Amino acid sequence: MTLVTVTTKFLPYSPDMSARSVAVVVTEEIEVPSWGLYELSIPCTVFGAAQADLADPWYDLRLCGEGAAARNTAAIGLAVRTPYGLDDLADADTVIVPSVPDPCVEEDRPLPPDLISALRSAYDAGARMVSLCTGAFALAEAGILDGRRATAHWMHTAQLAERYPKVHVDDSVLYVDDGDVLTSAGLTAGLDLCLHLVRRDHGAHVANQLARRMVVPAHRAGGQAQFIDLSVPGTDDEGLGPVLDWARANLDRPLTVEDLAERAAMSPRTFYRRLQAATGTTPLQWLLNQRLARAQNLLEATDLPIEKIGELTGLGMANNLRHHFLRHVGVSPSAYRRAFPRRVA
């Protein structure tokens, strides 16, 4: 399998320090998804491009793997050479795992034992451990995340929590800094965390200037909660489908569990039990998620005032909409609208 791990040599900054070494570990796989290459490119760009006017020395980028041969990513037509081996992780002060192959997440395919052993050895030697996106699965497999708060891409946090119950998974944040162990959400959240590492290593001014050169915000408001699809998947329960469709079409009404149960010709207790079994959430939480999802859609697709959106979604006054947005989405409705502007045809 092709799996990429970045290791960063971290030393307290001083003008005469030697360059921090950054190593990238690649193990063989038939195909690498394009987003895996994107997550690999983030630490390579942040730590591999010299920024001598910001901090000199910068970082020294290295590739590490199971051998020196080029690893071909057949689906995309690229090859990566790895002149360093997994043994070179032993001397790293920071180890970054950008991602793991999809089969290791979706199909529970085992991760390379040599990689897990190398990660554990680096951690036991005192390395600062970092994962981007699904790289958290590798740290979790090595036992590094046990008892710690961690995150990953929101599409995979449920799997991470189920597979590794000792990990305190938080799907609402862009990244988690737990001191010597840091984890990020998926894709561009990896850039947020890498800039955070530069901020820790070199200070805020250097990180801010680097962010300007990369044409990205030095710090993004909110967490990844604003990107999560709050709508609950459909259910195969034929007795629930029609009433849930009706509820989605009438979110502007003050719906109650009793209203929905009556429309489904069930007792409130039976409706509660069947909806929770079918969707994994309570009726009230299901309704709130639907209202928030509808509000997100209206904020993205219309120029309606916040007050009107609160009315159409059943969330009431603008202050109530703002309260729920801040609590469950992580940003205000206005900030969300700025982040997802309406496209004009």
Automatic annotation (TrEMBL):
Keywords: DNA-binding, Transcription, Transcription regulation. Pfam families: DJ-1_PfpI, HTH_18. It comes from the Bacteria. Residues 241-339 form the HTH araC/xylS-type domain. This is Helix-turn-helix domain-containing protein. It comes from Actinomadura miaoliensis.
